[in-house]
Amino acid sequence: QVQVVESGGGVVQPRRSLRLSCAASGFTFSDYAMHWVRKAPGKGLEWVAVISYDGRNKDYANSVKGRFTISRDNSESTVFLQMNSLTDEDSGVYYCAKEGYMNGYGLYYFDHWGQGTEVIVS
Amino acid sequence: EIVLSQSPDFQSVTPKEKVTITCRASQHIGTNLHWYQQRPDQSPVLLMKYASQPMSGVPSRFSGSGFGTDFTLTINSLEPEDAATYYCHQSGSVPLTFGGGTKVEFK
User: Fold this and answer.
1) Closest chain B residue to A111, measured at CA
2) For a pLDDT cut of 90, what percent of chain A falls above it?
3) Does the beta-carbon distance from A45 to B92 stay under 8 Å?
């Protein structure tokens, strides 16, 4: 059974940093690209970042480019999101999502989502 | 960036009613359009991939259609558990984008 579990959220002051983690199980982690998607209070879903199955390719939403860094450790089946220079617009629930196609990179659907971890910048 | 315009923003419904949600893309995306359901206080769940392919376990009252720039999610004979926000998502190009969401609420 596929499981994706985020952690690392919390309350952080503006301009500070936070690192989110996403632990995956129930599938061959190193075969799938992984994404971060967020939902700000009262707003819709916003895609944040993607990392390819092998970690070589990464892409970001314009709103976080230059501030956020996605990475992964295939030996630990974990994906990370390093968030720097946080602003109140970065507040929200951050979801980790598995791409639905083996060896893909970004251009597919999300077939499994975690329960999310909340980030409050205040 | 491909913009997805979703409508309506909100739909107040009664049981057994039919709901149609539309999603319009600012550029041609073929069938690279997917639909998610997010119930209150839950994570999103993939309902439909590639415009019209339902995921395993999705009730037959859900159907999707469309190609290019215009897409539709239809829910026939609404059930109480269908109260949720529905999002379209395009995977035609990066940055990936979502529609603004359609909240379906029972009267």
Assistant:
1) B46
2) 94
3) no
